[in-house]
Amino acid sequence: QVHLVESGGGSVQAGGSLRLSCAASGYSDRSLCMGWFRQAPGKEREKVASIDSAGRANYAFSVEGRFTISKDNAKKTLFLQMNSLKPEDTAMYYCAATTGGCIGLPPPEAFDNWGQGTQVTVSS
């Protein structure tokens, strides 16, 4: 069981930036795949970005070029740098992890460990 705790959400004006963090613990599998997802009110949870154990990143088309996923293996922390934020980026953002690796940008169903979420609000 991987324990995940997100932080870094908040309110920002359009065009601004935020950096989300996700502290992971309780695992030793080096093939851990981690990802960020988001869910706006009344909408389904959607993929944002993922990163595999080798550091290969994949992004949803809606955030590519604006968001960057990265990780610090030593500190077991996942990051999401969000630049040029838009009002449509407003959502609850969740960190997720699964052991056994991942290919591409997996859907939410592929992940079995989730954080509690952190709210991101972008005003116009």
Summed up, what is this model?
The chain is mainly β. Helices cover 0% and strands 49% of the residues.
List keywords for this structure.
seven-stranded mixed β-sheet; mainly beta; globular; 124 residues; 0% helix; four-stranded antiparallel β-sheet
The shape, in one word, is: globular
Tell me the series of helices and strands, N- to C-terminal.
Answer: EEEEEEEEEEE
Oligomer: single chain
Radius of gyration: 13 Å
Sheet with the most strands, sense and barrel status: 7 strands, mixed
Summed over residues and divided by their number, the pLDDT gives a mean of 94
How many helix segments? 0
Number of DSSP E strands: 11
Which blocks of ≥5 consecutive residues have pLDDT under 50?
none
Fraction of helical residues: under 10%
Distance between the termini: 39 Å
Description:
With 124 residues, the protein is mostly beta strands. Helices cover 0% and strands 49% of the residues. The strands form two sheets. Strands 2, 4, 5, 6, 9, 10 and 11 form a seven-stranded mixed β-sheet that branches. A four-stranded antiparallel β-sheet has the order 1-3-8-7, with no helix packed on it. A hairpin with a 6-residue loop joins β4 (33-39) and β5. It is globular, with a radius of gyration of 13 Å. The model has no long low-confidence stretch (mean pLDDT 94).
